[in-house]
Amino acid sequence: MSFRVHVRVMPRAGLLDPQGQAVEHALSALGFPEAGEVRVGRAIELDVQAASPTEAEARARQMCDKLLANPVTEDYLVEVEEGG
Amino acid sequence: MINLAVVRFPGSNSDFDALRSAERAGMNAYFVWHRDPDLRGADMVILPGGFSYGDYLRAGAIARFSPVMQAVQRHAAAGGPVLGICNGFQILCESHLLPGALMRNAGLSFVSKPVDLVVECTDTPFTARYAEGARIRLPVAHGEGRFAASEETLRMLEAEGRVVLRYVPESERSPLQPNPNGSAHHIAGISNAAGNVVGLMPHPERAGDPATPDDGAAFFTSMAAWQPQPSTSKASSR
Fold this sequence. Notes:
The complex is a heterodimer of chains A (84) and B (238).
Chain A: E1 2-11, H1 18-29, E2 42-49, H2 53-68, E3 74-82
Chain B: E1 3-8, E2 12-13, H1 15-24, E3 28-33, E4 44-47, E5 49-50, H2 67-77, E6 82-85, H3 87-94, E7 101-103, E8 111-119, E9 135-142, E10 146-148, H4 151-159, E11 163-167, E12 187-191, E13 197-200, H5 217-224
Parallel strand pairs in B: 1-3, 1-4, 4-6, 6-13
Antiparallel strand pairs in B: 2-5, 7-10, 8-9, 8-11, 11-12, 12-13
């Protein structure tokens, strides 16, 4: 079966995210002062061939640990959608 | 004579500067392409700066899967010296040959300017010709040079004397330039536990010509004078 996998990679909480800060300042300057705690990460989507959603998620997590995220500075979230 | 391999990736730069600096110091330096499976008998390796693979995903993240990096891993594991400059430092961290990671500069801007540094560790094949505590001025040119690591890793690097180069902090109120990227502990360069793998953000190869400020030249004269020490290298442990 094919599963669409959504990976969200975010800078680890507590680490300085200068991109997030810059976007927050820009939003404020544009008239959105209510925006706060902005953080900028990365979204990755891929099809994974697997026997079950659980297997697809496990494989996607391995991909994150090995390449898609840097374990030193980033956290990730994996979501599996059925039917690719 | 020391044989030095300068590895070239798609997007490398300063590779010729590294080659010329090495030749000037009396080494036999040559290029190795990232697809080459071996280092052609190199005693030492330089991973130069640049934007290998367009910095896709993260700086250095894709380069570490190049065929040549398998050879670099073996060379390093056997105690062979490896110097990663700028993007080369990022590749060494992504390859887990060095701890930590290099993140977007705190000021977000790409920083290209001379910075002042302290040489804190001279017990490496690349810094042996410096005096410990020497102040040197080298250029930096990077967008992602903010060294980050866990508190535990930072404590280990400090305790083991593995901070090779440190930006002179602003608090010293000297005419020297402060930390350009917001790195942890003002770190500009580190080594692995054995001392044979070193990564740094500044560019010694761009400050090696006698016609210009040549504070970086001693990196290359250190390398040219290097001799393998079987008793202390990892190669002797198996």
